[in-house]
């Protein structure tokens, strides 16, 4: 059984380059299905979720291969609109292929993705929007079958600015008949990135990054080479790690633009942060100040994907902090593992009260999801003695090589197979 071993209480110092963004490349890889030709995606991270997306694209007839750090996708021979169940089970975000397949083949069959460790995660907004766009949606025995004589543009209002639903609607609209307007659209940087990619391939999308996105259908998208941005959550995780252990680190390949809310919190904790267009420098003296109130919110609010990592840092704060998790109700499941380090965390509904303790002690912990797993690594880096983390697979879904990166910053960490 593979595991990660950490000997904690070492300050992190040095420089690390940030990998390509998981949440940016997954929708872009889905979007390649709409491209009439070849897509070359530079700075594509080598993570499990990308490997799974490659397997899905191959299973539906596409040719996919690596050219160094670039992934090349040719969808000319796409021959089915059925997404194999095994991959939907492995990677919930494969539902992002629905919009793209509807645009390309006018049909899609996919297994209902169900919930996951971080929450129920329904897809009612996605399916409701498709229905408003002339798509018939049938659900039977856990299978969702969508068919259309042609996707038609419409005005779609989202009750909540869902990232995945916004992406799926954009993907379904790009080759649709007429204009689609998404109202209360998600504003995450990854939405902007998907639209940048699609526009560069010939789509007509306006307003990405705002609450109202308008898409005018076009006839086809052409071949394209595109470079993905760096992963803001991976960068945020390493910033949190330095905040927790103390030290001084430089992250390269990423600016602070999309990390403003997190950086504000890190500064309140007592960290010094400097940044330029493609670097962030953080310096921390160790035990952070507590944060009275953090509420996770859609972008530009505090990201839910950074909640667990910041909680780990606050476990050693010099006072009491409060977090309210507004996006995914199941994210506190990770707390039972964080407590094993000797942390004082009380959960009531969506609220977590974290009373900092002077030291944490290394222990055996089990990752059960991606960001929660990264949070356990941070706790291990802060703790006295040895920590063994099982199920590293969950972390590898989104981090190319977290042990390599943290070792480069001076951590005593290794993966044992
Ligand atoms: C994406 C990100 C994930 C991030 C999340 C929120 C990817 C691959 N994943 O997930 O890392 O944590 O955004 O920033 O980009 N909801 C519904 N019905 C729907 C859709 C969503 O009720 O049809 C709810 C969800 O249960 C959740 C909230 O809306 O409470 C936000 O979910 P959403 O923004 O859709 O997250 P994902 O796209 O799944």
What does this structure look like?
There is one protein chain. By secondary structure, this protein is α+β, with helices and mostly antiparallel strands. The protein has 2 domains: 3-19 and 230-416, UDP-n-acetylglucosamine1-carboxyvinyl-transferase, Chain; 22-227, Alpha-beta prism (UDP-n-acetylglucosamine1-carboxyvinyl-transferase, Chain), CATH 3.65.10.10. The chain has 14 helices and 23 strands. The chain has helices at 22-31, 48-59, 85-90, 97-105, 124-132, 163-173, 189-200, 232-245, 260-268, 307-314, 335-338, 370-382, 393-396, 402-408, and strands at 3-7, 12-17, 38-42, 63-67, 70-74, 107-111, 136-140, 143-147, 155-157, 179-183, 204-206, 212-216, 224-227, 247-252, 272-276, 279-284, 294-295, 320-324, 344-348, 351-355, 364-366, 386-390, 412-416. The strands form 6 sheets. A 4-stranded mixed beta sheet has the order 21-22-1-23. It has a 4-stranded mixed beta sheet with strand order 2-14-16-15. α1 runs parallel beside α2 (48-59), α4 (97-105) packs parallel to α6 and α8 (232-245) runs parallel beside α12. It is globular. It binds uridine-diphosphate-N-acetylglucosamine (UD1). The site of uridine-diphosphate-N-acetylglucosamine has 22 residues, from α1, α5 and α6.
Number of domains: 2
Assign the structural class, choosing from mainly alpha, mainly beta, alpha/beta, alpha+beta, or little secondary structure: alpha+beta
The low-confidence runs, each spanning 5 or more residues with pLDDT under 50, are none
CATH architecture of the largest domain: Alpha-beta prism
Instruction: Report the C-alpha radius of gyration, rounded.
Output: 21 Å
Task: Specify the CATH homologous superfamily of the largest domain.
Answer: Enolpyruvate transferase domain
- By oligomeric state, this entry counts as single chain
General shape? globular
CATH fold field value of the largest domain: UDP-n-acetylglucosamine1-carboxyvinyl-transferase, Chain
Strand order in space, largest sheet = 21-22-1-23
The residue fraction in helices comes out at: 25-40%
Small molecules in complex: uridine-diphosphate-N-acetylglucosamine
